[in-house]
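Handout, section 3.2

Students often ask what a structure token actually looks like in practice. Rather than define it abstractly, here is a full record for Aminotransferase class I/classII large domain-containing protein. The first block is the sequence as you would receive it.
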Amino acid sequence: MPSFKVMDVVAQAAALERDGKSIYHLEVGQPQSTAPAHALAAVNAAIASGDRLGYTPANGERPLREAIAQMYLDTYGVAVPAERVHVTIGSSSGFTLSFLAAFDVGDAVAIPMCSYPCYRNILQTLGVQVVPLETDDCYKLTAALLKSSVNARRKSGLPPLKGLILSSPANPTGVMLTPDEVRGLCATCDENGILFCSDEIYHGISYKDAPRAATALEFSQQALVINSFSKYYSMTGWRIGWLVAPVELSDAINRLNQNLFISAPTASQRAALAALQPAAKPELEGHVARYEQNRQVVLDALARMGITDVAPAHGAFYIYVDLGRFGVTDSAAFSAKLLDEIGVALTPGIDFEYPGSGRGERRIRLSFCGATADIEAGMQKLAGWWEQYLGHA
Ligand SMILES: Cc1ncc(COP(=O)(O)O)c(C=O)c1O
């Protein structure tokens, strides 16, 4: 399996920090905030009460699954039976569970050309054939593009697509599908027997100019939705997430969960339950307000640097930039140079683009989920370096 490049950059940055170098972190999608205070209090209370926090049912504790179901009703107006909710070890284990339950070796599964790298890496490791699909000018995979791939495969006698996986808001672009676009993808998938795996991990993190984040569950009973407490709930290291399975896959996913993981960490399940309570909301919305401010800092700095080839980031906490116009042809070397010369850590596009497309070599991702002052300092450093770079380019 190829490495997850952003984690390589994180390791390099940490090594430099250990040597005493100041690093400006614009690389990793890890909120700098802690889990919500209510979540921390719930775990402390459980520990103080002497609760052994032992194994739970593989699909998670009932109160947590019910609270997740309630969240779908409150946020999206969708009734989701708690029986279809499976608690997972972050969305990452949700991918493995879903792909193992739904796909066989040799199946063809589509992902957008530009997407979260672990989809491709996990699918390929499981022997699934990954089919990268072209996106539109805004990095969106639309129903029309999916249909044209379905038809082209039919015409040329290729095996039909068995699945599609994408995220909205997306990583690395922050691009969001409108509710109608999600509806269109759901309909096309359902009509063609394609399992739509909708990664909704960045739901809750979207900005004033964004469309409403619709869940695929609003439009399809067949869709499989994967989500996590890592991003909006600011709980990356707690390794806790969930998925909502279609009825036909729910039992298989439960059996896989029992055998592969036994259960998700119990302390994290308790924390997650508290994080879902209305009392935690103001703290979480405060993080989103900070991300919105940070997004502006990055966009303003890029504009001052003359960099305008930027994906429309309506959600998540990333800005994805194409530097091809400025002669950047090796984003890995470019990122390594930045880290080495000025301590700015960012992620090369080769992590996200389909290998061989040549696009990742021109593109970089900036993450803005840190403290506003750190983002400002990092962008200032980058802007100073950029002036010199342009002088020599
Ligand atoms: C789109 C997307 N999906 C899934 C994940 C994995 O998250 P976790 O396993 O922490 O839930 C990430 C992490 O950055 C992501 O960006």
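Discussion prompt for tutorial groups: Residues 29, 90-92, 116, 167, 171, 199, 201, 228, 230, 236, 241 surround pyridoxal-5'-phosphate (CB under 6 Å). How would you have guessed this from the sequence alone?
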